[in-house]
Amino acid sequence: MKTLRNIVCALALIATALPSTAAWADPLQRTDLLKNDIEVPGYQIVQVRVDFAPGSLAPRHSHPGEEVAYVLEGTLQYELEGHKSVTLSAGQTLFIPAGVVHAAKNMGTGSASELATYVVRKGEPLVAPAK
Predict the structure, then answer these.
(1) Is the pTM of this model over 0.85?
(2) What is d(CA 69, CA 46) in angstroms, rounded to the nearest whole number?
(3) Are 45 and 73 in contact (CB under 8 A)?
(4) Cα–Cα distance between 5 and 69 in angstroms, integer?
(5) Are 66 and 86 in contact (CB under 8 A)?
(6) Contact 35/48 with Cβ under 8 angstroms?
(7) Distance between CA 9 and CA 123 in Å, rounded?
(8) pLDDT single digits (tens) 8-26
(9) Sign of the CA dihedral 111, 114, 28, 59?
């Protein structure tokens, strides 16, 4: 019985020493809001909310269509291939042309969020990692 109690105590100490499961969560959280066909044959509109943990990065990627990024909160820095980086705060928007490789980073110490609206070709993955 004493051995069992020692094991339970040791497990409790280990559990309190480990980071919380929240700290293990993905630093980017994507929430699909809308996906709908549009009148342009073969295209659809997609809306996604992207939440960035402090300092997190959406690595270089592209989309099979245009994106309009609207910063809901925080400060995000966007790096578009072939363009100067741009830093946006809540209420500002950015147009990202189809196929342009880009990345986004939360530059603040708190959370940041964007509303991403895409007009993309149907049947293709929404996000393609850059090579």
Answers:
(1) no
(2) 12
(3) no
(4) 55
(5) no
(6) no
(7) 53
(8) 333 333 333 333 333 334 7
(9) negative
